Task: structure prediction
Amino acid sequence: MKKKFTLEIINPCSENFDKMIPSTNGSFCNSCAKNVIDLSRKTNSEVAKFISENKDQNICARLKVTQLEEEFECRETSKLNNFKYAAVAASILLASNAIGQEKTPVQTEINSADPNMLIMGKVAYNGTDSAEILVVVKGKLLETKTNKPFTDKKYSNLVLMINGSQSPLKIDSKTGKFSIPVQVLKSSKTLVITITSDDYYFSKEIPFSINSVKNNTLEQNIIIDEDELSKLSTMILGGLGVNYSHEKELKKTKRNI
Result:
């Protein structure tokens, strides 16, 4: 069953999200000792999935103001149907076991493998190299057209993350230089670069090869077009409310999560 809903924040919070401590899904607010979940950069389907998986939770979130005008849709499975499916599955399983017990003959002998079928030697293991290593990525953030750093005042607070690094790094506004430790898999083919500021956001994948790493250091400039820095819409954060709409009813049922 599909359910449609809209989001709201009745009492917006005045805390500065950018000054909070970064966490897995957002940032930690010292004022209220809570994680503020950042939904501002999620797609509609990702937001719907998050809401569906976090029902009845008291959530503080960060949203774009435009998201308050969006209508989301999530799929909800009826509990009654779940019980029916479970009952049917259980009855089938019991029936299968009963039939299996009736038809399976009692085994009175143990069949051993023919000695001629055995082989001896060293065992070779073929698997993907999933070892994770710490790499320091060093370089400069440069603008495509000028091949120079983003020195304009409006780009003075650019922050860099690579592969969702736990310690975002502020880029030197004069030189564009950065040096950031990153955990990567040896088998990785790309790195995810994310650059943010108070008003801008940029994210994309760049090629990566473990062969380019020398002494656990990767020399890698990041060159992007100024137009790729998308200006963010006005943000709002606070206690998240969800308004569920019913197809057969015109009124909305308001419910905080």
About this structure: Residues 82-96, 247-254 have pLDDT under 50 and may be disordered. The radius of gyration is 27 Å. The chain has two helices and 18 strands.
